[in-house]
C-alpha cells in the first residue's frame, strides 16, 4: 500500500544570528492511510517540530514531505495555507477556543474558508459535534464547558472539514485522568470507525498505548515502530 505521508531526508535547522540549532536530522518516515501514530520523546527532541512540518505550519531546511502524493514542501505560502485548510485538522493541548463564540460557532470557523453556504456550514458543524458527543452542548460557550468538553469541541473543529490528516499535540496534557481517557477513546473511535489518519504527540505512555504504532524521537532521529496494518476506512467520513 502506498503511504499517505512520505517524509524523506527531512532536516530542520533554526538559526539565530550566528547560532544554529538542528532539531531534526535527515528524518525518514512513512505513515499509512488510516494509521494512528504516536510520537514520544523528551522535551526538545523535535516532536512538535515534526508535527508542524506535517501540518504545513513550517517548512523543512532540507528534504521533502509528500501527503497523498503532493509534495507540500514545494508549495508557496499562499498555496500551503489553502492546502492546510483542506487537508489538516489540528488538536491543541490548550483547546484554543474563542471564548465569545459558542461551541457550534467555534466548530464552524474552519468552514468559513470553504465554498459552503451558511446552512451547510451549520449542518457540518452540528454533525461534527454529534460525532464527539456534544450535540446537547452546541450552544454553550467555552466557559460553560469542562476541560474535557472543551477538548471535544476542539476535536470537532479539527474534523469538521473531513481532513486528510488529524494532528494532535499533547491532546490530553491539560486534562484529568478521566477526561483524558475519554478523549483517547474518542480519538481511537475516529481512527477505527471513521478511518481518520492520526498523528499524536504525547509524553504519556498510557496515551501512546492507544495508538497502533509508537515512535520515539531522540536528538532529532526516530527510533522504533514497524508499520502496522492500517484501520479499515469505511464509506463516508467524520464530517
Order of helices and strands: EEEHEEHEHHHEHEHEE
Number of helices: 7
Mean pLDDT: 91
Radius of gyration: 18 Å
Strand content: 25-35%
Fraction in helix: 25-40%
Distance between the first and last residues' Cα: 25 Å
Main β-sheet description: 6 strands, mixed
Globular, elongated, flat, extended or rod-shaped: what is the shape?
globular
* Strand numbers in spatial order across the main sheet: 6-7-8-3-9-10
Task: Tell me the number of strands.
Answer: 10
Report on this structure.
The chain is an alpha/beta fold. Helices cover 30% and strands 26% of the residues. The chain is built from 7 helices and 10 strands. It has helices spanning 47-54, 77-87, 103-108, 118-131, 147-159, 177-192, 205-208; strands spanning 5-16, 19-31, 36-40, 62-67, 70-71, 88-91, 165-169, 197-201, 213-218, 221-223. The strands form 2 sheets. The protein has a 6-stranded mixed sheet. Strands 2-1-4-5 form a 4-stranded antiparallel sheet, with helices on one face. Strand 7, helix 6 (177-192) and strand 8 form a beta-alpha-beta unit. The two termini are 25 Å apart.
